[in-house]
Amino acid sequence: MNYETTMSGTMDSGMLDERQSTNRRRLIIALVVVAILAVIGAAYYFMGGSAAPAESAEEKNAQAQTVTVVAPGRETVVRAINATGTLAARREVPVGVVGEGGQVNRVYVDAGDWVRQGQVLVSVDRSVQVQQAAALEAQIGVARADLQLAQNELDRGMQLVGRGFISKADVDRKTATRDAARARVNVANAQLNETRARNARLDIRAPVSGFVLERNVETGQTVSAGSGILFRIAQDGQMELQAQLSENDLVLVSEGVPASVTPVGTDRQFTGTIWQVAPMISEQSRQGIARIALPYDRALRPGGFASVEIKAGSMTAPVLPESAVQTGREGSFVYIVGKDNKVKQRPVKVGDTTAAGLIIASGLDGTERVVLYAGGFLNPDETINPKLLKKK
């Protein structure tokens, strides 16, 4: 009994000492950790605490991406409208059969020839008409002979009436006979002139001077009033471009505005002026036609296709390259850089396109620093390192 009690008490005392020793070691470790932290904190505060934020700001600026910006200013730019259209004769004159027609004896001109007003284009057989005219001339001779006879009888009657050989009534009848013979002469002359005029119309002549665009008749062909158009002539050789313009562009142009036309298939440019602006808009295409007068040149072929640049006046506004203008849900915008080097979105209204870039109709006064490139990779209020590009 005493042995067991003594052993139990000895074991309890040893365990208690071991537990106390472990707690002391833990306390010492905790104190050491606290002391180390305190030393580090003191060192941070006294030695480097004030310099750390400065280093962080410098690192932040160093990490900001370098972005090219430009101050666009304001430029006087010519407003140009680009369009396409079809080449045509400014005044196209169709030529057909005016008279009764007949068999074609000869065609004197071809497509591509120049003609004068009144020049014979086609001669038509007139053998029958010539005989008719000869018959009428013979009738005129007969009528004139009758007139001369009636006049002689009237003269003799006037001499005899004073002597009482014939009555006054006989003189009146002779006078009427003379007048009727004179009228028959006039009728015969009129018929002859009519026949000659008809014969003259057998020849197809150029109604105007100009350039022959089309020929649709051959020697030996029988032509009549129902034969259709035999020739097409561009009056004075003048050409035009019928440019298709939108409703907005039509408002900007007027008669006398200059334009440069480039036909398809050539790099030549022809200078012309607008001579007519369509008073109506097509309901299907919502476009109208501006007709641009052009001087004759063989490179201008009616029916061909051509592009045109129309000078529609000038304006003063900022001009930016296309890379500076972004497009979002609410329309076009640019990124401008503030004094704090942070970017912000600025909505703009884009005007016409020029060789120098896009005209900014509204939204900028030209003094702002505008992000030139990489706008699609920026976010609003992002800090950047701007690099100003001087405009030439």
UniProtKB/TrEMBL annotation:
<dbReference type="InterPro" id="IPR058627">
    <property type="entry name" value="MdtA-like_C"/>
</dbReference>
<dbReference type="GO" id="GO:1990281">
    <property type="term" value="C:efflux pump complex"/>
</dbReference>
<feature type="domain" description="CzcB-like barrel-sandwich hybrid">
    <location>
        <begin position="101"/>
        <end position="234"/>
    </location>
</feature>
<feature type="transmembrane region" description="Helical">
    <location>
        <begin position="27"/>
        <end position="47"/>
    </location>
</feature>
<dbReference type="Pfam" id="PF25973">
    <property type="entry name" value="BSH_CzcB"/>
</dbReference>
<keyword id="KW-1133">Transmembrane helix</keyword>
<dbReference type="GO" id="GO:0015562">
    <property type="term" value="F:efflux transmembrane transporter activity"/>
</dbReference>
<feature type="domain" description="CusB-like beta-barrel">
    <location>
        <begin position="241"/>
        <end position="312"/>
    </location>
</feature>
<dbReference type="InterPro" id="IPR006311">
    <property type="entry name" value="TAT_signal"/>
</dbReference>
<keyword id="KW-0812">Transmembrane</keyword>
<feature type="domain" description="Multidrug resistance protein MdtA-like C-terminal permuted SH3">
    <location>
        <begin position="319"/>
        <end position="371"/>
    </location>
</feature>
<protein>
    <submittedName>
        <fullName>Efflux RND transporter periplasmic adaptor subunit</fullName>
    </submittedName>
</protein>
<keyword id="KW-0472">Membrane</keyword>
<dbReference type="Pfam" id="PF25954">
    <property type="entry name" value="Beta-barrel_RND_2"/>
</dbReference>
<comment type="similarity">
    <text>Belongs to the membrane fusion protein (MFP) (TC 8.A.1) family.</text>
</comment>
<dbReference type="Pfam" id="PF25967">
    <property type="entry name" value="RND-MFP_C"/>
</dbReference>
<dbReference type="InterPro" id="IPR058792">
    <property type="entry name" value="Beta-barrel_RND_2"/>
</dbReference>
<dbReference type="InterPro" id="IPR006143">
    <property type="entry name" value="RND_pump_MFP"/>
</dbReference>
<dbReference type="InterPro" id="IPR058647">
    <property type="entry name" value="BSH_CzcB-like"/>
</dbReference>
